[in-house]
Amino acid sequence: MDRVHVLAKLNRALLESFSRRTTDALRAALPLRLALPHLEPLLARNVAKEVRKDALVIARAGRAPAGGASDRETVRELLEGARQIDREFLAGLGKVPLRIVVPYDEIAPLRARRIERLLAATRRILQNWAPGRSLRAALQACFTRAEFERLIHDDLRLYASETLALSRAVQLPAVLRPARESIAQRLYEIMQRVAARLAADAAASVYRGAR
């Protein structure tokens, strides 16, 4: 079993579910329906690039030992890898009616925290994942249910904060520009609620039947 691949697949499933649930909630929020044609492509493309970034982190955790200066260098390299993915993301926007200038000064600290947390969590899981055990068993051995729920929730909240910064950089039509900040804040509030629910659901799934 390629444990790194299994963890990357789990992470992708969580982020894609987060994006789907957020979009569904946006469709139900009447004030945001006018902005949805501009936000939905952002959310769909954003989750794809974040999955790629997280896969880099998970792969690095599988081969790089933890420790001091080496960890700082690892985070720096992963941030640069994330920027390259962002550049590819922006280059691909020529195919959709969406213009963004990524606010790196605001996003980089949030991204660094996500990288640090994902590195630590992945290493902890891999170090305690005994041969022959399932992913569920490994997660249950590493975290209590409350710890796992908090881990997922905190990661998704940071993801929501990054998305808030990115949504503020979207070039909206003139009719929607006066409402830019309220739209961004509403999106953030919805993502926060979805994050809490998804974290709880993920924990319930992993710990179902556990003693």
Attribute tags:
211 residues, 75% helix, mainly alpha
Description:
This protein has 211 residues and is mostly helical. The protein has one domain (3-206). Helix content is 75%, strand content 0%. It contains 7 helices and no strands. It has helices at 3-28, 36-61, 68-91, 104-127, 135-142, 145-168, 180-206. Helix 1 packs antiparallel against helix 2 and helix 6 (145-168) packs antiparallel against helix 7. It starts with a helix and ends in a 5-residue tail after the last helix. The mean pLDDT is 84.
Secondary structure elements and their pairing?
Layout: H1 3-28, H2 36-61, H3 68-91, H4 104-127, H5 135-142, H6 145-168, H7 180-206
Coarse structural class: mainly alpha
Secondary-structure element series: HHHHHHH
Mean pLDDT score: 84
Helix content: over 70%
Percentage of residues in strands: under 5%
Quick structural gist:
The protein has seven helices and no strands. The protein is mainly alpha-helical.
